[in-house]
Each structure stands twice: as structure tokens, then as C-alpha cells.
């Protein structure tokens, strides 16, 4: 039996599209890298991956991960390991707003399941799916670290606590309004890290 060195997996496929940060984001990345001692640029990997995911369509393609590796002077496999380990990095296209609802014990007993079911109903999707308009992706995640204010959800970079179905409806309405007005409301990773 002959063995091949080629990995055949849908996540490990180059799209062959050019990938580069805008000059504005690249300046922020360079500023971020300047915070670390020479030879320790890998320490900036998490924030740079967040910025790359945001900049390159809401997910990390192999091309985007290779670009990040080049910027940080590390091997691509080091980027792949991190991007595939953490649930906040997406290897497939997502909606503009990724809604992550906590499903662990404290949130569940405080109404988290009710929130997830409400989102399923109003968005017309199940966890793991994206709305037809490409606006929302719904995900269930493990602990978001806010048990005392359960139930909670995170939408991109923002946390929402002590949720009720009415509060969720207001949040969705604000997100739709922001989309229509083009307002990001200061919720980009590049703004948070630099």
C-alpha cells in the first residue's frame, strides 16, 4: 500500500485568493507586535488571528492562516494548531454576527436553554447554522465565564448578560439596525486590541 504525504481534509485546502491586511489594520498589527520582545512575536498570535478572522470574511482560511504565520515569523502549523484548538476561531464561513449562547449548568438552570430555543425560533436556524441572509450564525458554547449573570451570550466581541427573550429581541433589533446603518459600534477586534 502506497502512502501519500498529501493531507486530504476540507479544512486543509488553500483557496488561492490573495490575503493581506488593509494598511490601517497592518499598522495596528505592527503596533501590537511592538509590545513583545524580539523573537516572541508568536505571543501576539491570538489577537492577530482575531483580526485576521474579522478582516478576511469572518473565518480563517488556510491562506489567511499562512499570511498570519508569515507576519509573525512562525511556521504555518503553529497557527493551524491554535486556530483549530480554540472555539472562537472559525474555519468555515459564518454570518456577520456569531451568536454564542452558553450551555453549561449555571446558564442552563438560569434559562439558557430557553434563550437558545428563542433564538432558534426567531432566526429560523439551529445551532451551527447561518441565516439565509448571512447575518447571524448561532452556536452553543461551553462556559462564557459569567455564571453570576446567567444566562449569557456573546455576539462577536460583545457579552450580553441576564438574558430574557425580550432582551434578545432588542439585541437582534440593534444588530440589524447597526448593519443597515453601517455602524460597527466599536466592536471590532482591531479596535479592542490596539
Characterize this entry briefly.
With 194 residues, the protein is α+β, with helices and mostly antiparallel strands.
| Helix run count | 8
Percent strand equals 5-15%
Average the pLDDT over all residues and give the rounded result: 86
The number of distinct β-strands equals: 4
**Helix and strand string, N-terminal first?**
HHHHEHHEEEHH
Fourth-tier CATH superfamily name of the largest domain: Glutaredoxin
What class do helices, strands and sheet pairing give? alpha+beta
Assembly state of the chains shown:
single chain
How many angstroms does the end-to-end distance come to?
Answer: 53 Å
Secondary structure elements and their pairing?
Elements (H helix, E strand, L loop, with lengths): L22 H11 L11 H11 L6 H11 L3 H10 L11 E6 L2 H5 L2 H12 L12 E6 L11 E3 L2 E3 L4 H17 L7 H5 L1
Parallel strand pairs: 1-2
Antiparallel strand pairs: 1-3, 3-4
Helix pairs in contact: 2-3, 3-4
Notes on the protein architecture:
This protein has 194 residues and is of the alpha+beta class. The chain has 2 domains: 23-85, Arc Repressor Mutant, subunit A; 97-179, Glutaredoxin (3-Layer(aba) Sandwich). Helices cover 42% and strands 9% of the residues. The protein has 8 helices and 4 strands, in the order H-H-H-H-E-H-H-E-E-E-H-H. It has helices spanning 23-33, 45-55, 62-72, 76-85, 105-109, 112-123, 165-181, 189-193; strands spanning 97-102, 136-141, 153-155, 158-160. Strands 2-1-3-4 form a 4-stranded mixed β-sheet, with helices on one face. Strand 3 and strand 4 form a beta hairpin. Helix 2 (45-55) packs across helix 3 and helix 3 packs across helix 4 (76-85). The longest helix has 17 residues, at 165-181.
Amino acid at each position: 500500500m502506497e502512502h501519500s504525504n498529501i493531507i486530504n481534509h476540507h479544512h486543509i485546502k488553500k483557496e488561492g485568493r490573495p490575503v493581506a491586511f488593509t494598511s490601517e489594520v497592518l499598522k495596528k498589527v505592527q503596533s501590537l507586535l511592538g509590545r513583545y520582545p524580539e523573537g516572541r512575536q508568536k505571543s501576539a498570535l491570538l489577537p492577530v488571528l482575531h483580526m485576521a478572522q474579522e478582516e478576511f470574511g469572518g473565518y480563517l482560511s488556510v491562506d489567511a492562516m499562512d499570511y498570519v504565520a508569515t507576519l509573525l515569523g512562525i511556521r504555518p502549523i503553529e497557527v493551524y494548531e491554535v486556530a483549530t484548538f480554540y472555539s472562537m476561531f472559525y474555519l468555515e464561513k459564518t454570518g456577520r454576527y456569531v451568536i454564542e449562547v452558553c450551555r453549561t449548568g449555571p446558564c442552563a438552570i438560569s434559562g439558557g436553554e430557553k434563550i437558545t430555543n428563542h433564538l432558534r425560533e426567531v432566526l429560523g436556524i439551529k445551532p451551527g447554522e447561518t441565516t439565509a441572509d448571512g447575518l447571524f450564525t448561532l452556536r452553543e458554547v461551553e462556559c462564557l465565564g459569567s455564571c453570576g449573570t446567567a444566562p449569557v451570550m456573546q455576539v462577536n466581541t460583545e457579552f450580553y448578560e441576564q438574558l430574557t427573550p425580550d432582551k434578545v429581541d432588542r439585541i437582534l433589533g440593534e444588530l440589524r439596525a447597526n448593519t443597515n446603518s453601517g455602524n460597527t459600534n466599536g466592536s471590532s477586534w482591531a479596535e479592542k486590541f490596539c
